[in-house]
C-alpha cells in the first residue's frame, strides 16, 4: 500500500510549497483572510494515514484515509493558531508530523507602533508531534 498525499495551503495571496510524498494529486486548502487553523487531528498506525485541519470559522479540510489510532492537537493558549507543520517521510508515506502553534505578534498588545518586521514574530509557541 502506498500512502502518497500532498498538501498545499493558501492564505490570502500566499501559497506555501507543496508538502508530502509522491507525485499524486495536490490537495489544496484555501484559508480566508480572517481564518486560522486552530486544530489538527488525524489517524496513524505505522504511517500518518489521515490529517484533518479545523479553522476558527468551523471549516474542515481532510486528506487521506481513516486507518489506525486517532491523534488530536490544538494550541494551549487561546489566541494561538497553527503557524507551520513539519514531518518526516520515506518513499511509502509520512512517518511523523509535528504541529507548531503560536500567537502572532501584535504591536497593540505592547503599546508599540505597527512594525512589519516585528509582526512576523511569535509571542509564544508550543510544539506537538505524532
UniProtKB/TrEMBL annotation:
Residues 1-103 form the Jacalin-type lectin domain. Pfam families: Jacalin. The keyword Transcription regulation does not apply. It comes from the Eukaryota. InterPro entries: Jacalin-like_lectin_dom, Jacalin-like_lectin_dom_sf, PolyBind_ProtTraffic. Keywords: Lectin, Signal. The keyword Magnesium does not apply. This is Zymogen granule membrane protein 16-like.
